[in-house]
Amino acid sequence: MEFHIVLVPIGEIEKKLLEKLQAELGLIFYPLQVTISEAIQIPKQAYNSERQQYHSQAFLNALIKRVNAKSSKFLGITSLDLFTNGLNFIFGQAIIDGNVCIISTHRLRPGFYGQPYDEKIFVERSTKEAVHELGHSFALKHCSNPHCVMYFSNHILDTDRKSKNFCEKCLSQIIKKTNPYREPINK
Ligand SMILES: [Zn+2]
Ligand SMILES: [Zn+2]
Fold first, then answer.
1. Which of these, 31, 56, 86, 127, has the minimum number of CB atoms within 10 Å of its CB?
2. What is the pTM of this model?
């Protein structure tokens, strides 16, 4: 199957971040195509006023409605703070081996931790979380290697420590799933 990755801004997302993600994901998931779609609206029912956060499932549901082909992997990107039941917050969520996933940039901004804005760090963190969630959508589970992108980030320090790439073991699974003849450039 010829998979295709679609970046879907949910609400307002800087064009620059979308373009950088498109380029980074294009390298990591080569030779899959990565495109940017029109933005969709923030699902109104997602907001939880008590927590002042947004329930990620409502975002996944909004994305599921857009899926038009089994071969498409939709990655939603929101700047809002996401949570899911049982967790204080999440950097992202995916349906394992499904067609949709989401990342939140809310806690990826250095400003969230009282640090000055740094575009490089912000883009790097966003890339790692995007690759991680897309990895889940290609059926990958969490990896015990703390430098592998599939390592579970419980804290921003986990995100900063891991790389944006798959370890050898995870990479071989991705290659099997996407295209057995692919030449990984970004190993
Ligand atoms: Zn995960
Ligand atoms: Zn791994």
1. 86
2. 0.95
Respond yes or no: is residue 133 known to be catalytic.
yes
Considering every ligand atom, which ligand is closest to the CA of 170? Answer: 2
Q: What is the largest CA-CA distance in the chain?
A: 50
Q: Using one digit for the tens of pLDDT, what is the confidence trace for 89-99?
A: 999 999 999 99
Residue 20 in tokens: 């950088």
Determine which one of 24, 124, 129, 133 is catalytic.
133
First-last CA distance in the chain: 22
What is d(CA 55, CA 90) in angstroms, rounded to the nearest whole number?
10
Ligand 1: centre distance to CA 122 (Å): 19
Residue 31: cis peptide before it, omega within 30 degrees of 0 = yes
How far, in Å, is the centroid of ligand 2 from the Cα of 97? 16
User: Do 149 and 165 touch, CB atoms closer than 8 A?
Assistant: yes
Please give the domain boundaries of the chain with CATH numbers for all domains.
4-178 (3.40.390.10)
Residue 56 CA: distances (Å) to CA of 33, 41, 48, 94, 171: 26, 14, 11, 10, 27
Give the separation between CA 173 and CA 187, rounded to whole angstroms: 13
- Note whether 31 and 184 are within 8 A (CB): no
Indicate which ligand has the atom closest to the C-alpha of 147.
2
